[in-house]
Design brief:
The structure holds two protein chains of two kinds. Chain A is globular, with a radius of gyration of 23 Å. In chain A, the strands form seven sheets. Chain A has a five-stranded parallel sheet. In chain A, strands 9-16-10-11-12 form a five-stranded parallel sheet. Chain A has a five-stranded antiparallel sheet with strand order 23-24-27-26-25. Chain A is built from eleven helices and 27 strands. Chain A is 24% helix and 31% strand. Chain A folds into three domains: 3-116 and 249-316, 3-Layer(bba) Sandwich (FAD/NAD(P)-binding domain); 131-246, FAD/NAD(P)-binding domain; 335-414, Enolase-like, domain 1 (2-Layer Sandwich), CATH 3.30.390. By secondary structure, chain B is of the alpha+beta class. Chain B has one domain (2-100): Beta-grasp domain (Ubiquitin-like (UB roll)), CATH 3.10.20.30. Chain B has three helices and five strands. Chain B has helices spanning 23-29, 57-60, 65-71; strands spanning 2-7, 13-18, 49-52, 81-83, 97-100. Chain B has a five-stranded mixed sheet. The longest helix of chain B is centred in the N-terminal third of the chain and has 7 residues, at 23-29. Chain B is globular and about 30 Å long. Classes of the chains: A alpha/beta, B alpha+beta. Chains A and B meet through helix 3, helix 8, strand 23 and helix 9 of A and helix 1 and helix 3 of B.
């Protein structure tokens, strides 16, 4: 970067995976001016994925889980303003306004505002205590404390998505008795094929989690230490603690008020830039174009946060760049490692690949005609890696060989002739 | 306690003392360039790839099956490759030299 940028200020709203990785990437790319990160969360930025997994079951403090050490920010000259809420953006004057009315000017502004858990308008949900979402370290601290103090440790998890299921698995390890209530016909309905839903339903059953589907929660009643979670089919479930994992709201309000384009998130181009040349948006809050799938998507993932952060940092420093990563995700539940690559939406065929020697090791391949869209790999990093390579190369796969556990699993064997 | 040396892609050599946790966490804490640890240390992202100095392979051991599989994503992987989130710090690692893969 040239010296004339010395006095420039880059302001980042949101200091989680996207915002923090952006700040460090921006410095690495040569930005010499100030970098100021704001976040309402008062804690030094931390890894979120472990919150529902290993972190929940450990006794660790959040300091074992930090994205970067306090010294790293200092060393790179990145200013962290934690526990500070930003209330608005003034694009004309190029400044943001904090909750206390203070203004902070910017030359470049990056929105990494993420998302917040949906707390559905179920009667009794907001008015009751011991009901938690799981998105922040504070949520986990509350859940841990509450569980430790609870005699019966009965937990109802509302929502059978990844957060709900990971949390259920962790709570079982902590000695809780756990019931998961899912509104759809199967768990993980929005994100995986029925084969995967069935596998995880069994896995949880084997480990003592009660999962009930087609359960629409209509009310929560609290009587002393016990809560009653009432469903519209007339059945009720008793709980001491309730976890809500029914999805997220994207934090787009501030961007919308500032007149930026909002669709299913803050709309950005392939360099993570919004309609304003000086404002970028990265991470969970963005609605962005993915060239591999030729459509705009919104993703809730670390991969997207980190990769968009790098793209924005490149672009702001004047380097040519384009976001073109194949999305990937992971989930850990009990002893099962699930790795996912690609976006399965729009698939018309699923191929289940089992491995001859291990029934807990398999993969689900999502195709649209002959085109591989995505792979879900269960305890099978090979399938994840091969899937990534095939999606990247676009090479045709011989589906009959893929499906045949007797055909040795490697990319060359799977190639269509 | 173990002294671990990282050699970055700029050929900078940085030696850090660690007591516990993973080598990846130690590297991230100390801002070692090229060790990102995006997944937080669960062998899911392959962004903590290092080449172990050949004579130190005895101390670190070879990559596990899942590491080997994940390393297939990286063209620079070889028999000295490890994902350092899978290296637990202990006395046995004292003196190892790890070259950050690019």
């Amino acid at each position: 970067m040239t010296k004339h940028q010395n006095n420039k200020i880059c302001v980042v709203i949101g200091a989680s995976h996207a915002g923090v990785n952006f700040a460090f990437a921006l410095r690495r790319e040569g930005w010499e001016g100030e970098i100021i990160l704001y976040d309402a969360d008062p804690i030094l930025p931390y890894h979120r994925p472990p919150l529902s997994k290993a972190y929940l079951t450990s006794d660790d403090g959040i300091e074992k889980n930090l994205l970067k050490s306090a010294e790293s920010y200092e060393k790179e000259g990145i200013t962290l303003k934690l526990g500070v809420k930003v209330s608005s953006i003034n694009r004309r004057k190029k400044h943001i306004v904090l909750n206390d009315g203070t203004e902070q000017s910017y030359d470049k502004l990056v929105l990494a505002t993420g998302a917040r858990p949906i707390m559905p308008p179920i009667p009794g949900l907001m008015s009751s205590n011991k009901i938690f979402p799981l998105r922040t370290a504070a949520d986990v601290a509350n859940i841990r404390t509450c569980l430790a103090e609870s005699e019966n440790k009965r937990v109802v998890v509302i929502g059978g998505g990844y957060i709900g299921l990971e949390t259920a698995a962790s709570l079982i390890k902590l000695g809780a008795s756990v019931t998961v209530l899912e509104r759809e016909e199967r768990i993980l309905a929005r994100v995986t094929a029925p084969e995967m839903s069935a596998f995880f339903q069994n896995l949880h059953a084997e480990n003592g989690v009660d999962i009930f589907t087609q359960k629409n929660v209509i009310a929560i009643e609290t009587n002393n230490e016990e809560k009653l979670v009432k469903c519209d089919d007339g059945v009720s479930y008793t709980a001491n603690i309730i976890i809500v994992g029914v999805g997220i709201h994207v934090n787009t309000e501030m961007a919308a008020s500032a007149g930026l384009t909002i669709e299913n998130g803050i709309k950005v181009d392939e360099t993570a830039k919004t309609v304003d040349d000086d404002i970028y948006a990265i991470g969970d809050c963005t609605f962005h174009y993915n060239p591999h799938y030729d459509r705009f998507v919104r993703l809730e993932s670390v991969q997207n946060a980190v990769d968009q952060a790098k793209v924005a940092a490149f672009a702001i420093c004047g380097n040519e760049t384009r976001y073109d990563t194949i999305p990937w995700f992971w989930s850990d539940q009990f002893d099962v490692k699930l790795q996912m690559v690609g976006l399965s939406q729009g698939y018309d065929q699923v191929i289940l690949r089992k491995e001859a020697d291990n029934e807990k090791c398999f993969s689900v391949w999502y195709f649209k005609v002959d085109h591989l869209l995505a792979v879900d790999a269960v305890n099978n990093a090979k399938a994840y890696v091969y899937g990534t390579k095939f999606i990247k190369s676009g090479d045709k796969i011989d589906k009959a060989k893929l499906e045949d556990p007797e055909v040795e699993f490697n990319p060359i064997n799977l190639l269509a002739e | 306690m173990a002294k671990i040396t990282f050699i970055t892609s700029d050929n900078e050599s940085i030696t850090i003392e660690g007591n516990s946790g993973s080598v990846m966490a130690l590297a991230v804490e100390n801002g070692i360039k090229g060790i990102d640890g995006d997944c937080g240390g669960v062998c899911s992202c392959a962004t903590c790839h290092v080449h172990v100095r050949p004579e130190d392979m005895e101390k670190t051991g070879a990559a596990s099956e899942i590491e080997t599989d994940m390393l297939e994503l990286d063209d620079n992987a070889n028999e000295f490759s490890r994902l350092c989130c899978q290296l637990e710090i202990g006395d046995h690692l004292d003196g190892v030299v790890l070259k950050v893969a690019k």
